[in-house]
Amino acid sequence: MFWDDSDKAAVSIPITDFFGIGLGAICTFENDLFSSPEGKSHNCFIPMSYRKGARIEIVNESDKIIHFSYKINFLKVKKHNDDVLYFHSYWNREIKTELGKDFEILPRVE
User: Fold this and answer.
1) Per the domain annotation, does 109 fall within a domain?
2) CA-CA-CA-CA torsion for 31, 33, 61, 8, nearest 10 degrees?
3) pLDDT tens-digit readout, 8-63
4) Of 17, 18, 51, 78, which is least packed with CB atoms within 10 Å of its CB?
5) Residues 90-109: what's their mean pLDDT?
6) How far apart are CA 28 and CA 38, in angstroms?
7) What is residue 41's predicted lDDT score, i.e. its pLDDT?
8) What is the Cβ-side half-sphere exposure of residue 93, based on CA atoms within 13 angstroms?
9) How far apart are CA 11 and CA 56, in angstroms?
10) Farthest CA pair distance, the chain
11) Does any domain span residue 99?
């Protein structure tokens, strides 16, 4: 997901990880931010504010054909307050960590 003509993705994460599907195990669940009411569809309720525009790209990096459907609901507002923050989500896998080096959970964003 890209906000306001940015070349750098604000959200870059595998769909399964974003929606909490650990190790391919799909189950029903619901919390304030996500849900999978019947264990088949996945919903996200996180506000993702932008000021000029948003772009969402879905990339299939496998060699398999994937059937994918989506629905995006949005609320149009005249203008956000200056203190409204952008949503960022970062995914990183490090099989082996380095002793004495801090594990970076989220790189610095500005």
Assistant:
1) no
2) -160
3) 999 999 988 888 887 778 888 899 999 998 888 889 999 899 999 999 999 999 99
4) 78
5) 80
6) 5
7) 85
8) 5
9) 9
10) 49
11) no
Residue with tokens 């932008």: 50
The tally of domains found in the chain comes to 1
Q: Would 68 be classed as within a structural domain?
A: yes
Q: Report how far residue 105's alpha carbon sits from residue 91's, in angstroms, rounded to the nearest whole number.
A: 9
- The whole-number pLDDT of residue 12 equals 92
Q: How far is CA 104 from the centre of its chain?
A: 18
pLDDT at 68 over 90: no
Torsion of CA 102, 105, 107, 110, to 10 degrees: -130
**Residue 102 domain-assigned?**
no
Q: Scan for tokens 């849900």, then name that residue.
A: 35
pTM of the predicted model as reported, rounded to 2 decimal places: 0.78
DSSP secondary structure string for all residues of 33-57: SEEETTSS--EE------SS-EE--
